[in-house]
Design brief:
Number of strands: 4
Radius of gyration: 17 Å
Helix content: 25-40%
Strand order of the largest sheet: 1-2-4-3
Structural class: alpha+beta
Low-confidence stretches: none
Mean pLDDT: 87
């Protein structure tokens, strides 16, 4: 089994995910492309010592960026966004994950 930080790449913190964290106990992470739901669940449980109730995953393909005049028009390899996989994890009732320090 892989190390937890090899599976969980980064948290996704936006206004929508911050509301979900506070109200419903749902956290969103960018995960490894080849990670499955079982690996994601065990990685979250091992890192933050919480109980995972459900895991939902979604893949986002890399897309071509709009080619402006200049560098990107001459080098199309730099004109793409990266593909990534996102996991939405719901943890047990009354549990909390401290992702960043407030204040």
């Amino acid at each position: 089994m892989r190390e937890p930080w090899d599976v969980i790449k980064a948290p996704v913190v936006t206004e929508k995910t911050a509301d979900q964290m506070d109200e419903e106990g749902i956290y969103t992470f960018v995960v490894a492309q080849d990670a499955n739901k079982i690996e994601i669940s065990s990685a979250v449980e091992r890192l933050w010592d919480v109980t995972v109730r459900s895991v939902r995953t979604m893949r986002y393909p890399g897309k071509a960026r709009r080619a402006f005049l200049g560098r990107m028009a001459r080098n199309p390899a730099k004109g793409r966004s990266a593909a990534y996989k996102k996991a939405v994890v719901q943890i047990g009732e009354g549990e909390h994950i401290e992702l960043y320090e407030q204040g």
